[in-house]
Amino acid sequence: MFELIDSIKNEVVDMRKYLHQIPELGFQEVKTSKYIKERLESLGFELEVVAGTGIVAFKKGTSSEKAIAFRSDIDGLRVKEETGLPFASKEENHMHACGHDGHMSILLGFATFIASLPSIKRDIVLIFQPAEEGPGGAEVIVKEGILKKYNVESIFGLHILPDIEEGKIGINYGPIMAQCGEIEILIEGKGGHGAMPHTSIDTIYVTSQLISSYQSIVSRNIEPIEGAVLTIGKINGGEAKNVIAEEVKIEGTIRAYRPEVYNTIKSRIQEINSGIEKMFGVKITTNVIDMYPAVNNDYDLFNIMKEALDEDEIHILKPMMIAEDFSYYQQEIPGFFFMLGSRNEKLNYIYPLHHCKFNFSDEVLGHGVKTYIKIANKLGII
Questions:
Q1: Which of 67, 292, 299, 378 is the most exposed place for a label (fewest CB within 10 A)?
Q2: pTM of the model
Q3: Is 354 marked as binding a ligand?
Q4: Within 13 A of 262's CA, how many CA atoms are on the CB side?
Q5: Domain limits, the chain
Q6: What H or E segment, with its residue span, contains residue 338?
Q7: Residues 6+ positions from 24 with CB-CB distance below 8 Å
Q8: Annotated catalytic residue within 29, 73, 101, 324
Q9: What does the entry list as the binding residues for Mn(2+) (predicted)?
Q10: Fold of 179-290
Q11: Torsion-angle region of residue 134: left (phi > 0), alpha (psi -120 to 50) or beta?
């Protein structure tokens, strides 16, 4: 079985090199989509365009009415590449800095393997999804009814991760990635001369009190055993050294594993804002943008993964505060998301996701394809 994978490894590597050069932002993946479609057409899959630039490939099995789905994200990031690779991005200030070029190539390699078989026992659906980095293509695909149309029973996805050693597969059940949201807060006061602060309402000072109060939410309003993060990552306010700022804008992120915890953070932000308004006479406008739900891995699929993998491959994954829109599929059907280790210090593949020098070895691609084959074999697809 795996001898065939070794024979198509070079093809998978070549696909990755090509896709790496054409990173495109969410819902703009026109060239990427065209390439994927042409590859899948040549392999004989039934195809459907979804979510604008996404592609769904279907192959009928011989003995089941329910399908198993495998998903890859296809979008790039607004990052200027600094890897120095001979196949570096040709798109100015865009890069596949999160491994999606690898994810696509692995799934295309898996498709090549499936197409080489005389038949398969169970229906299979391959989802090439746009806009994982934002604003989120998985939700669109779910709303378009793709899972129901193809009678998908469960879904699998992977992500290359440099925090895990190359050759290892990170797995666990329950929440492994966080629900996330973005916050935008505008504080409006009264500007004036820096030498006469008593005639003004200083929004810089008010903002400092606001941020300080926010820090009490996770430490004092959330049970210590819960996982939660509230980070203010951006502040913009003021015009000159000797001018009291009339307004300040701050932006940040909320992360939590459970909706109840996430909603508590949102409520406390509003309550603190209301109190600060009364204390200082400012106006505070709050906008919370709810993003992706938590990635919550199915326990039964976790056990299937453990049985499918070799014992020395398994890395028990700790929950992470990063987010992934694979979670939208899991709200509809059982799903399992796992991490494909890529850390290789000898080859200097140590840079984190979204870094301008992020890269991984060709061996990671072959390992990914083999893992999908192991899952397919365990589930009786092949």
A1: 299
A2: 0.95
A3: yes
A4: 21
A5: 2-177+294-378, 179-290
A6: strand 335-343
A7: 30, 31, 32, 75, 76, 91, 94
A8: 73
A9: 98, 100, 133, 159, 354
A10: Alpha-Beta Plaits (3.30.70)
A11: left
